[in-house]
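DEPOSITED CHAIN:
***
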Amino acid sequence: MRKGAFRMADAITWLRIVLLPLIWVYALMGDGRIVGAGLIAVGVTDFFDGFVARRFGQVSPAGARLDLIADTLVLLSAAAWIVALDPEVVGDNAALIACAFLVYLIAVGIGIVNLRRLPNLRLFSSRVAGGLLYAFAVITLIGGRYDRLLLVVAVGAFIVSCVETVAGELLFSVADANIGSVLLEWKRRADISTVQANGSASKQRSQAPTANVVGSKASPISSIPTDAAPTRNESRP
């Protein structure tokens, strides 16, 4: 049953990937509302594949890699759909989008070149940025117009998440880990190092040789002769 549940989680992830070419057809036809609805369906599959994997305890590195690939394809596709159907988004915000894309490429490049894999640190900031970008894409595609404030907030959150990913890669030399936050992970590792250092010092003190000499603590005892004081039975002159 557990093994079957894991296959179901993978099947849901594959469904997300398979949906993309179909959505692309409508994007090329210029139907933004269908593309937005398809993006909602993609988001539902993204929720359920993780839920099924966690619910049945079948989370695995292979499933996480497949999910990361699917998420990356959705991100790139959604960006392309926005450009194709609402080109004014890029025209009005070219510098901001270019900066975000550059930071994203740096994060991906460090992961691939130094760590041999796509970065997937599962950060809180990445989840926030993904939710904001997803909301912006759906609202823009279905509504046919974009909210510049929402775009700035979403792209800004995305840049922050990419910068935090780069920091995590460089500081901890990992590309796939459930860190949550670089600051929290740094504090956690610092606490572990402190505990280990204290434990090592305590162990060294317990193993150090100690003096065990009898009479090392002075306790002088005066020798008092028993016949020094006269007793009642003694004869007196």
Observations:
- The chain has eight helices and no strands.
- The helical segments are 2-29, 32-55, 61-85, 88-92, 94-115, 124-143, 148-172, 182-207.
- The chain has two domains: 1-71, 86-202.
- Residues 1-71 form one domain.
